[in-house]
């Protein structure tokens, strides 16, 4: 990955845009992409610092997505979930576009990390069904190692069209070729599959019963 070259390019574009706005990109667009490069380079503080340059009154879809990624990196999964649901509600027509399809994947990850397995699988299934016709594979590869267990769960528990099933298998095969670990243990997969097959309320009741209620 040429992250340093990408950063230099986006910073040059930002400087040019400040001097002579082209009208194609807004300053918020460029800041969002620069922050994402920092995130991909594990420079979390730099990404957070960039977001402070934007007035809090501005609600820009890419900046909100970056903030959600920061929450995920920091283990603030509930905050990420709330922000991503809000993003989908406010920009529903834009979420289908390939780069923004990642919003659904991020939401699935935020839910998964909170052990909301059923909801996580449903959100990932929706992302697959929307992406399969156009073969939008890149958003899944960006988070491959983390979303692979959820993709396996989708194959294990959901009823997919042949197109969606082939697309999911293609993602997993590509991740394998990239050297990403995708296969959880059989015990873990069985446990997750069981969790995915019951509703959140059923899971709640089981937890209460286990605690003696």
| Helix percentage range | over 70%
The number of distinct helices, counting runs of at least 4 residues, comes to 12
Ranges where pLDDT stays below 50 over 5 or more residues in a row are: none
Number of strands: 0
Into which percentage range does the β-strand content fall? under 5%
Q: Main beta sheet, described?
A: none
Please identify the structural class as seen in this structure: mainly alpha
Provide the descriptors you would attach to this structure in a database record.
213 residues; mainly alpha
Structure commentary:
With 213 residues, this protein is an all-alpha fold. Helix content is 70%, strand content 0%. It has helices at 3-19, 27-40, 44-51, 61-73, 77-90, 102-113, 117-131, 138-142, 144-157, 162-177, 186-196, 200-210.
Structure summary:
The protein has helices at residues 3-19, 27-40, 44-51, 61-73, 77-90, 102-113, 117-131, 138-142, 144-157, 162-177, 186-196, 200-210. It has 213 residues and is mainly α. The longest helix is centred in the N-terminal third of the chain and has 17 residues, at 3-19.
List the helices and strands and how they pair.
Layout: H1 3-19, H2 27-40, H3 44-51, H4 61-73, H5 77-90, H6 102-113, H7 117-131, H8 138-142, H9 144-157, H10 162-177, H11 186-196, H12 200-210
């Amino acid at each position: 990955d040429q992250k340093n070259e990408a950063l230099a390019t986006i910073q040059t574009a930002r400087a040019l845009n400040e001097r002579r706005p082209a009208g194609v990109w807004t300053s918020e667009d460029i800041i969002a992409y620069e922050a994402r490069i920092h995130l991909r380079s594990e420079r979390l503080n730099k990404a957070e610092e960039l977001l402070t340059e934007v007035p809090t009154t501005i609600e820009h879809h890419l900046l909100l997505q970056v903030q959600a990624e920061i929450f995920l990196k920091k283990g603030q999964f509930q905050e990420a979930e709330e922000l991503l649901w809000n993003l989908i509600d406010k920009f529903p027509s834009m979420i289908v576009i390939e780069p923004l399809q990642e919003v659904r994947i991020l939401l699935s990850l935020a839910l998964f990390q909170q052990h909301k397995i059923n909801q996580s699988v449903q959100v990932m299934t929706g992302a697959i069904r929307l992406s399969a016709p156009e073969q939008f594979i890149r958003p899944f590869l960006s988070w491959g190692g983390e979303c692979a267990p959820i993709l396996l769960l989708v194959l294990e528990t959901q009823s997919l069209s042949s197109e969606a099933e082939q697309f999911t298998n293609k993602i997993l095969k590509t991740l394998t070729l990239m050297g990403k670990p995708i296969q959880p243990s059989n015990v873990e997969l069985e446990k997750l599959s069981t969790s995915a097959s019951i509703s959140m309320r059923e899971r709640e009741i089981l937890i209460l019963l286990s605690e003696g209620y």
